Predict the 3D structure of the following.
Amino acid sequence: MEPGSSNGDNYDPAPSRIAELAAALTRISACTTPQATLQELLAAFRELIPRISYVLVHAGRDAAHPQLRVEPGYSMDEGMLQGLLAFLPSLSLPAILSVRTPWQINDPQTAESLRLSGIGDLLLIPIFTQENPSNQLLAITRRVGEACFSTEDTQAAVLLITQAVSAIQTAQLLTSLEQRNHELETILQSSLQLTASLELKQVLDAVLEGVFRLSPSTHDAHIFLYQDGGLEFGASLWKDGRKDVPFSMPRPQGLTATVARTGKMILVDDLQTHPLYQSSGLGWQGSIVGLPLVVHDRVVGVMNLAALEPGQYPAESIRPLRLLADQAAVAIENARLHAIIQQKAFTDALTGLPNRRAMNRELEDEMRRSARYRHHFALLILDLDGFKQINDTYGHPVGDQALIWFSQKLSTLVRDTDFIARYGGDELVVILPETHKQIAESVRQRIFHFFEQEIFCFQETVCQPITVSIGMSLFPEDGKSAERLLKIADQRLYHHKSRRKPSNR
């Protein structure tokens, strides 16, 4: 039979065979996966066309240049299989695959060639679906000495293959819809997580968790933040659950930096052959994709996904990842803006120190920590002596300079773990965590004597002494509430100020 010929005319099988064929077609149509469909198809061939051997051969995606590969699970013995594989290149496989109708031995010379391998008859049936154009051939054989395939056999094969292709296409469509639903559900859940927090670290972690739900082949994922032309590490997540362990920092001309500069995605199917890595000498293997995180045409970060094997990021897997990247960019920008607003809300604009609102929050937190772990801490209130005289004599701009000068000097006199805030006007507060009375008193004396000796100078030649009065309270000795500690420290401040010389007031 020539390629393209039809066996559908005058098909009149026995009633029993019609019933068997109908049952087989029903079972094939009920399959929900391509693999199950092929298994049911082979079972139907064994039932309806007995004494056969079979093998599924992949000809590759390019039908014009077939590259044969045998699917595991064939029933043909090795001698017949090798004879078949040696014979197939002599056929016009592109023609057979293009017409997609069965091919059968059609001349004595071909028959004799196959008989040498023990093949008495051969039926080649193309299997093709648009979703998976892998150009598969189902080869069905009978041994030498057995009956050749009848017209009924070939016509039954055509009906079975047609039903199988339809079932495979339906299964692939169902799989595609399920995958799309999974992607949309994942993106929805990630979106809810991203909008649930304005804390940058929580946002970055939520993004990376969404990556692994969308891309199971990913081995590690990293986010680098991009601002003012510089990249800094944001977060990472690894397949084994490790977090915030960077694989490497961005190279100046590497993938991450290039994506940040250009705002364009870069997909590397094979690290060993791509120009970005080929000359790096790093010896890395696998595949990687760099996705820009863009808000209003401005890159705010880069998200990298890496896999251990080449070719792990086909086009269909990139689409949902880009949607997630778009959402991530907006969430990161919102978190940054929130952080800026928070900083301004809790920062004194003049000195850059935490303001009274921040001091109240810190004081409450320190009381909870100290009460829980039974620690002591000290609270100092500082008042600048002579500050009003500076304002009245030289003006408020000079007074502002004096406050900045004082706060900068004060920060050098305490520990990094101590907390300094502008309480209001010319008053500052210092919180000394895990500090007993004796140490707190020595800190108070050090600050007092330092400013007794320092002189504030401005306008190059004009200098003005700025001394300080200090009141101190202790937790829990003087009180266990913020109001009580501030009140005691304030009373002791004015007591200290009243004992100072008039020239220092």
